[in-house]
DNA sequence: AGAAAATACGCAAACGTTTTCGAAATAATA
DNA sequence: TATTATTTCGAAAACGTTTGCGTATTTTCT
């Protein structure tokens, strides 16, 4: 219905064989310039558009890349996708975007759906619930190109993009300590995922370095529910020996923390300093403005896409290298960690 | 490579004809329960996944829906897509997501790419630059299902989802006036697009109602560049007879306004009250917290999807009705419009 | 028991491409 | 001029489904 004329009809109109027309449109050397021109102009005139599915069926390529993210309402992931699209679009690739909402079961369903070849590759950031990775292993075993970013899956030998999680968290925690924090806390969504581990490691290293003994209660695992998190954090903050600094390993938890603080008598940064991983453009407009660790999300997306495109377009390309590409984050100091 | 066994091979394994296997998998009445079970279990065992392109080619359906938005880093659009995905996923549809970055030329390219049938329908919000709508007309003429939301294109007779732009802006402006604003200003990205016109109309109506004569200079058209907008707004705010209230028709401009105010001696809300269309979850955390007009984005996406699914799955469905569905917005009053 | 109807399955075409192979027609070479 | 290359194109198969039609087998009815 929506699709117009077919190659055969175009060929009939030109009194040529479909094979000739196909070759002409694909600029084959076997076709004379003269007929190429004829074909091109007639194709233009009749508004011919090749059927992508016939082509996909024949070529066994979809010209589509699947992107799987844990949440859509998040500046970081949106920027990464913008970066991916920037590069892939130039090469005629389409983006299938899926959101897991941090749900492993949903992630599995999506991955299984993609097993049929609807996409040529997957770029993903795993859900915070993902500990069983059998679905990802299945992909890998079939030789399906996967590429991870941010929330990577270390067990799958492929290319991964992360930021310098350990190092930048170390520096961020040092900053907290430098600003006078004696009892910093670390907020995370899950203990299992890779970046959490690295960031936590950096956090603990800074404490050790400063000779601060860490209260395990201050390494807080939060959940998906905003309200619950606010409650958890409020309870954390109203206890006797409460934390005086917060390092949120994900943006969502820093915001929950702001909300929790509003329910107490505490003041940021006087009573509590906060620093968080976040790519929000408006961190500077928060009350008080939020000190952030921001990843170069857009270029991370671009880099992912470049590697993928190379793998997909060049022939006889080896499997994606088992390497971790580190792109450093940037700490932007704002009011939430100031000494008053 | 990635795709596994084919229907033919599965049939050979079962010593059945491909047609029988196909019918068994599609639960046809022509096949006995016994063989159906055999086929199902063998398909499971051999990990058979039907090739989506062969199916698409045969059925002339892609099982994909294209979503085109002007920007990804925007809570509203992200929520709408979440809503769309929620419904479409249940019905086995995939989402192709494209971002125009408010660029008409990009919008045209994307639309033209979709002319080949890669998607069964388009759900879109037009770019703020879109005044020439020939590319959209072409889609409509071919009978391609299009559905607009928020930034609709009135000239195309199809289903559109918007909020009560006129009414809610009228009320929002009344609120500004009630809070003491004598010289409110209206901020927009473009004069051409539908929602801007409606919102501006509501704004002007409220002024007229209150007997306030409007300075045309206070209906400010901004651009895409953040820095430029901040400059424009700063200049607007430092002049002698500056506005004392702002209604931003899009979130982006409210944020630019906050940035601009930081470069002046003005204080919100004392010297300047601000209300804005926005779906940011953290409007309450801004400094000061921002009074917002928020659209029910998620359910708007869901509604879009429901109508689309109905059109796509039921046979002999008429074209999408030429109607405008209005889903009311909600005003949440916060500190930025308070009287001190 | 014989005819009619219902059940269960196979054959082959079709969807719109690309590509292998082969075959004319023209050009170059001996 | 006869032979060989080169250029330019066509016929047909293939990708993996679905489906119209035909047919063999079984069931039902008179």
Automatic annotation (TrEMBL), chains A, B:
Domain of life: Bacteria
Lineage, uppermost ranks: Bacteria, Pseudomonadati, Bacteroidota, Cytophagia, Cytophagales
SUPFAM superfamilies according to UniProt: lambda repressor-like DNA-binding domains (SSF47413), Periplasmic binding protein-like I (SSF53822)
One GO MF term: DNA binding
Region forming the signal peptide: none
Keywords: DNA-binding, Transcription, Transcription regulation
HTH lacI-type domain span: 5-59
Protein name (Swiss-Prot/TrEMBL): LacI family DNA-binding transcriptional regulator
């Amino acid at each position: 219905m929506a699709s117009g004329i077919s190659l055969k009809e175009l060929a009939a109109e030109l009194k040529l064989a479909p094979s000739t027309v196909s070759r002409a449109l694909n600029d084959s050397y076997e076709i004379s310039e003269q007929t190429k021109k004829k074909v091109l102009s007639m194709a233009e005139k009749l508004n011919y558009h090749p059927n992508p599915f016939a082509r996909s069926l024949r070529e066994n390529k979809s010209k589509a890349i699947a992107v799987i993210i844990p949440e859509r309402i998040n500046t970081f992931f949106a920027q990464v996708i913008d970066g991916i699209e920037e590069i892939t679009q130039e090469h005629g690739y389409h983006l299938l975007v899926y959101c897991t909402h941090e749900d492993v079961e949903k992630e599995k369903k999506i991955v299984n759906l993609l097993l049929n070849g609807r996409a040529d590759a997957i770029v993903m950031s795993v859900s915070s619930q993902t500990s069983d990775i059998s679905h990802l292993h299945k992909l890998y075993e079939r030789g399906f190109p996967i590429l991870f970013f941010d929330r990577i899956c270390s067990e799958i030998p492929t290319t991964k993009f992360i930021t310098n999680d350990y190092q930048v968290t170390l520096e961020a925690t040092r900053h907290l300590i430098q600003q006078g924090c004696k009892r910093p806390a670390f907020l995370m969504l899950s203990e299992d995922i890779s970046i959490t581990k690295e960031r936590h490691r950096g956090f603990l290293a800074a404490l050790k370095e400063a000779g601060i003994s860490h209260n395990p209660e201050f390494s807080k695992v939060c959940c998906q529910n905003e309200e619950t998190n606010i409650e958890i954090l409020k309870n954390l903050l109203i206890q006797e020996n409460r934390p005086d600094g917060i390092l949120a390993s994900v943006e969502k938890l820093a915001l929950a923390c702001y909300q929790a603080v509003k329910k107490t008598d505490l003041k940021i940064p006087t009573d509590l300093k906060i620093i968080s991983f976040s790519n929000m453009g408006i961190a500077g407009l928060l009350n008080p403005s939020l000190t952030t660790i921001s990843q170069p999300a857009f270029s991370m997306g671009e880099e992912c896409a470049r590697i993928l495109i190379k793998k997909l377009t060049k022939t006889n390309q080896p499997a994606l290298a088992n390497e971790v590409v580190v792109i450093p984050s940037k700490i932007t100091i704002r009011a939430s960690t100031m000494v008053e």
